[in-house]
UniProtKB/TrEMBL annotation:
Domain Kinesin motor: 12-339
Subcellular location: Cytoplasm, Cytoskeleton
Coiled-coil region list: none
Name this polypeptide is given: Kinesin motor domain
Binding, ATP: G97, Q98, T99, S100, A101, G102, K103, T104
Family note: Belongs to the TRAFAC class myosin-kinesin ATPase superfamily. Kinesin family. KIN-5/BimC subfamily.
Full-length numbering of the shown residues: 1 to 371 of 1064
Biological source species: Carpediemonas membranifera
Length: 371
C-alpha cells in the first residue's frame, strides 16, 4: 500500500483512528465532545477534566471524525490492503478500543443486512470478487474463509462449535496456522456473508452458554487467497486476517458478574500480551518478543513485526465521559505506529518456471561466450 505522509515506510504498521459520535448514555452522564481535530486529517487532541489545561495531542496515518462513513473508512483503511493481498502479500486489519467504541461497527457493521452501513469485512469481500472479475484470465483462484474466536485462551471455531479448543501450528510452507480449523471454499460474496452470519450467531450462542460477554473475546475472520498461473503453475498464497479485538478496558470497570480474579486475568491475557509484544517490538533494547505468551499474539505473530502489511484501527468514543480510555487507546496506537514489518510476496515458482529461468541463464552465458 502506498506510504502515507506520516508513515515512515510502507512496512510500518499503519495506524488509523476513528471516533464515533457520543451516544445517549454518555450525553445523559454529562459527557461533552472532547475531540479537537487537526485540519490535516492526521492529528487530534483530547481535552478532558483529568488533564488540567493541557490537551493530549496525537498524530496518526489518518484520523476519521465522528461523521465519517463506512465507505470513507473502507477506501483508506482496507482498499489498499486488498490490492496488496492480490499481489501476494499477507494483510491484517485489526480494530482496537474499549467496549462500545465502534470496533464491530467498523469491522462488520451494525447489521449484516444493512447494506448501506456494511462494515469493512463485507466491503473487503466485495472488493475481492471485483478483483477476481478483473483479473488476468490465465490465473486460477481459490478463496477460503475461516472464522474463530479467542476467549479465555481457547481458540473456538465459529463455523463448527464442536471445535472448542484448536491448536496453533507452524510449518515452513504455511507459516503459522490454526490446526484443524474449518475452511469454507467460497464462490460468491453472498456465500461469505452467510458464513459471517453463521459465525456471528455462533459467537452469541457460545457466549450466552458460558455466561460470558462477547466483548471479552477476540474474533478473527480469516480469508486465504490462492492464485495459480494456469500455464506456468506458479502459485501465490496470501492470508488476510480481519480482527475484532476484545474491549481494551480493564475488566474491573465493567465488573463482569461472578467473575473470579483468575478468570479476569485470563480474559485480559491476550490483550495484555499484545501490548507487551508491541512494547518489545518498539523497544530497541529488547531482542525477545513474547509472541508465545498468548494465543492471540501467536496467531498474529506474522502480522506484528513479521510477513504482513498491517493496519491498526483504533476506535474511540468522542465523549469526555470516556476521555481517559480514549487517551489510553490513542497511546496504544502511537506505540504501534513504530512497529516495522517485513512483508514479502508469498510466491512459489513451478518447476517449469525454474527450468525456464535456468534455460534463460544458460542461453545468456552461451551468447556471451559466443561474443
Ligand atoms: P464495540 O464493538 O467496540 O464494542 P460497537 O461497534 O458494537 O462497539 O458499537 C457500539 C454502538 O455504537 C453500536 O450501536 C454501534 O452501531 C454504534 N456505533 C459505533 N461506531 C459508530 C459510528 N462510527 N457511527 C455511528 N454509530 C456507531
Ligand atoms: Mg464488538
Amino acid at each position: 500500500m502506498p506510504a502515507t505522509d506520516t508513515q515512515k515506510n510502507r512496512n510500518n504498521i499503519r495506524v488509523i483512528c476513528r471516533f464515533r459520535p457520543q451516544n445517549g448514555k454518555e450525553k445523559k452522564a454529562g459527557g461533552a465532545d472532547c475531540v479537537n481535530y487537526g485540519e490535516d486529517d492526521h492529528s487530534v487532541a483530547i481535552s478532558g477534566k483529568g488533564f488540567g489545561a493541557t490537551m493530549k495531542m496525537f498524530t496518526f496515518d489518518r484520523v476519521f471524525n465522528a461523521s465519517s462513513t463506512q465507505a470513507d473508512v473502507f477506501e483508506t483503511a482496507a482498499a489498499p490492503v486488498v490490492d496488496e493481498v492480490f499481489k501476494g502479500y499477507n494483510g491484517t486489519i485489526f480494530a482496537y478500543g474499549q467496549t462500545s467504541a465502534g470496533k464491530t461497527h467498523t469491522m462488520q457493521g451494525p447489521d449484516l443486512d444493512d447494506f448501506h452501513n456494511r462494515g469493512l469485512i463485507p466491503r473487503i469481500i466485495d472488493s475481492v470478487f471485483t478483483h477476481l472479475e478483473e483479473a488476468d484470465a490465465s490465473l486460477e483462484f481459490s478463496i477460503k474463509v475461516s472464522y474463530v474466536e479467542i476467549y479465555m485462551e481457547k481458540i473456538r471455531d465459529l463455523l463448527d462449535v464442536s471445535k472448542a479448543n484448536l491448536p496453533i501450528h507452524e510449518d515452513r510452507t504455511r507459516g503459522i496456522f490454526i490446526g484443524g480449523v474449518t475452511e469454507i471454499h467460497v464462490g460468491s460474496p453472498e456465500e461469505i456473508v452467510n458464513v459471517m452470519k453463521l459465525g456471528a450467531r455462533n459467537r452469541i450462542v457460545a457466549s450466552t452458554n458460558m455466561n460470558a460477554d462477547s466483548s471479552r473475546s477476540h474474533a478473527l475472520f480469516i480469508v486465504t487467497l490462492t492464485q495459480v498461473h494456469s500455464e506456468s503453475g506458479s502459485r501465490k498464497d496470501s492470508r488476510l486476517y480481519l480482527v475484532d479485538l476484545a474491549g481494551s478496558e480493564k475488566v474491573g470497570k465493567t465488573g463482569a458478574a461472578g467473575q473470579t480474579l483468575e478468570e479476569a486475568k485470563m480474559i485480559n491475557k491476550s490483550l495484555a500480551a499484545l501490548g507487551n509484544v508491541i512494547n518489545a517490538l518498539t523497544d530497541r533494547k529488547t531482542n525477545h518478543v513474547p509472541y508465545r505468551d498468548s494465543k492471540l499474539t501467536r496467531v498474529l505473530q506474522e502480522s506484528l513485526g513479521g510477513n504482513s502489511l498491517t493496519t491498526l484501527i483504533v476506535c474511540c468514543s468522542s465523549s469526555s465521559f470516556n476521555a481517559p480510555e480514549t487517551v489510553s487507546t490513542l497511546r496504544f496506537g502511537e506505540r504501534a505506529k513504530m512497529i516495522e514489518n517485513k512483508a514479502k510476496v508469498n510466491q512459489e515458482r513451478s518447476v517449469a518456471e525454474y527450468k525456464a529461468l535456468l534455460k534463460a541463464a544458460h542461453d545468456e552465458i552461451a551468447r556471451l561466450k559466443g561474443k
